[in-house]
Amino acid sequence: MGKRQTTIGLFDSGVGGLSVVRQLESYFTTRGELESYRFLYLGDTARLPYGNRPAQEIKTFVEEIVAWLTNKGADQIIMACNTSAALAYSVACAQSKVPVFDLIRPTAEHLAKSARGKQKIGVLATNATAKSQAFSKAIKEFTNDLEVVEIGCPELVGIVESGDIDSDATKKVLSKYASQLEKAGVDSVVLGCTHYPFLAGPLSSLLPENVQLVDPAALMVRSLSKNKTSPQLLDDSNEVEITKELYVTGPLADFAASAQACLGQAPGTIYGITVQDLQTARTEALQPALPVADISTALS
Ligand code: DGL
Hints:
Blueprint: E1 5-12, H1 18-31, E2 36-43, H2 55-71, E3 76-79, H3 82-95, E4 100-101, H4 104-114, E5 119-125, H5 127-132, H6 134-140, E6 146-152, H7 156-162, H8 168-184, E7 188-191, H9 200-206, E8 212-214, H10 216-226, E9 241-248, H11 252-263, E10 269-272, H12 275-286, H13 292-299
Parallel strand pairs: 1-2, 1-3, 2-9, 3-4, 5-6, 5-7, 7-8, 9-10
Helix pairs in contact: 1-10, 2-3, 2-12, 4-6, 4-10
The structure holds D-glutamic acid (DGL).
């Protein structure tokens, strides 16, 4: 019997979403959750960064990418970009024919349910995500016991994309945020942009030891296994087979170099697509289907 393959579509503006792929890969490999698993990843590097863009633009990008990933065979879509999820989660859900997952909601649920008494949570995110207060609003759905401080960090996405993870210059930028967080007296820090887990090492060295870093992707993968629409456990004894297809709208070599610097290894096969390809997918998806009478006229 052939193996059942599930295609998971993921997207981000750049290499950030690879921190999500990394968590999924390690989760599925250790748990043996799937027989065959295909990651279909889009990095919209030609339009990076998303975090300084207006909401309407992000919504349009999300519609384009959801349509494109669906055309490429995604069985489900993970918004591996928190800026997109903060501003356009409902747009993605409304447009998608397949289930859509984000990282913000599972993070909020986990923080609320695991909190012991009143706690203060720091969230580092892009300007757009911080301004939207998506994390604090999501947490408030579960509890009013947590105080949330959201801080926009506009330089960090560029730093990660440049691959300059551990330099003195990077530590200098991070120390500015570390002292803000320390002054605020936070108990834990959510890495609220998918690029930031790649800076977890240098950042944690600048924070007091008792402050915990939270990677939302690690919480999201746990919630996937609880969700009925996510991949089901098939057979523990079967080996997990994982393939990765990475598509980028910007230069392939730049993406390969950043990914290598972030992951410490080559990310997989990288293909180029254009922004126009994404725009066409959206236009086609939004086009109303021809009524039956019109089709027969068109064929006659
Ligand atoms: N990695 C993305 C996020 O989680 C987008 C960063 C950006 O392009 O500004 O928000």
